[in-house]
Amino acid sequence: NLREDSGNLRESIRQANLNKSKFINTKYINYSVNNFKIKHCIHLTRLFYRWWQRQRHSIMRRHLTFCQKYQLLLWKDIKLQLANVIEFVLIILLAALMPLLITIGTKVAKSMFHFDIELEKAPGPKSIETSLFKDIYFSPYNGLIENLIYELANISDFTQIESFDATETLQKNMIKNQKAVGIVFPSDWESIKTLPDALNFTLYMPVYIKSNGFKYFESGFLLLQERLSQLFIKLKNKGGKNIPMVRMNHFPYPRYVPNHYAKSAKFMAYMYLVSFFLPCITIAKLPKGRTCKRLY
């Protein structure tokens, strides 16, 4: 009996061990299968995420505005410059010190090489030979003033002369006649017997001369002023001297010394454009080169 019991015990232990091993193997197989499914899902998720990122970037590239592209280039340029710290520091230092270096170089060159300064002449002024008016009004009436105005009409293109006792009457008639110009002398000249030592008069012209953009040179204002002044001086001096013709320069300035450094400054704008476009071209070529390397 003891032998049979011991044999049954051994058989039961063996069966228990077999069942245990089967349970362990089944659990391990189930665990391996689940782990494979999880890894496969993670891999599919990563592939989907990459595809979605590419689609999003492609859509963004299609709808980028010019300003957004410009900002993207600036951002890439800043990233590249920050990656090269030494180059970035040199660019800042050279940009700050370049005007100082040019100034020092100019002064050193002037001290080493002495040359004669050539004074360039200013352009010549223009003569006054135009008038847009046919009638001339003057006030107040006086024999000497009338003689002066007649002399002015003879050397000009005026066809009609008319005098007025009051300035207000002259202004009202000028409003009616847009082809007339008015000359008003001081009111005390009405009773003069000889021409005074100082000439004082006021020129009246239509409003359209100012509104249409005519300049003093083109409207005839300077023509009347010049000729009336010459006639007054001739009558005052009884024609003893020939007076040169009055000339006018719109922006009179004396002779000037040429500055070659100032002339070269106009090329700085082109240098700024070149210094901007060269990094943009380089930045645009880098992604293209990387894409070609990946394809090949």
What can you tell me about this protein's structure?
Helices cover 64% and strands 7% of the residues. The chain is of the alpha/beta class and 296 residues long. It contains 10 helices and 6 strands; from the N terminus they run αααββαβαββαααβαα. The N terminus is likely disordered. β2, α4 and β3 form a beta-alpha-beta unit. The strands form 2 sheets. A 4-stranded mixed sheet has the order 3-2-4-5, sandwiched between helices. A two-stranded antiparallel ribbon has the order 1-6. Among the domains are: 83 residues, no CATH class; 123 residues, D-Maltodextrin-Binding Protein, domain 2 (3-Layer(aba) Sandwich). The chain is elongated.
Keywords:
D-Maltodextrin-Binding Protein, domain 2; 7% strand; membrane; single chain; 10 helices; elongated; 6 strands; two-stranded antiparallel ribbon; disordered N terminus; four-stranded mixed beta sheet; alpha/beta; 296 residues; 64% helix; transmembrane
- Named CATH topology of the domain at 126-248: D-Maltodextrin-Binding Protein, domain 2
Overall form: elongated
CATH architecture of the domain at 126-248: 3-Layer(aba) Sandwich
Gyration radius from CA atoms, angstroms: 49 Å
Could you tell me the number of beta strands?
6
CATH class of the domain at 126-248: Alpha Beta
End-to-end span in angstroms? 83 Å
Q: How many H/I helical runs?
A: 10
Could you give a short account of the major beta sheet? 4 strands, mixed
Taken in chain order, the helices and strands follow as: HHHEEHEHEEHHHEHH
What's the average pLDDT? 71
Helix percent reads: 55-70%
Derived from helix and strand composition plus strand pairing, the structural class reads alpha/beta
User: Regions with pLDDT < 50 over 5+ consecutive residues?
Assistant: 1-6, 20-31
- Largest sheet: spatial strand order: 3-2-4-5
Question: Beta-strand level of the residues, as a percent range?
Answer: 5-15%
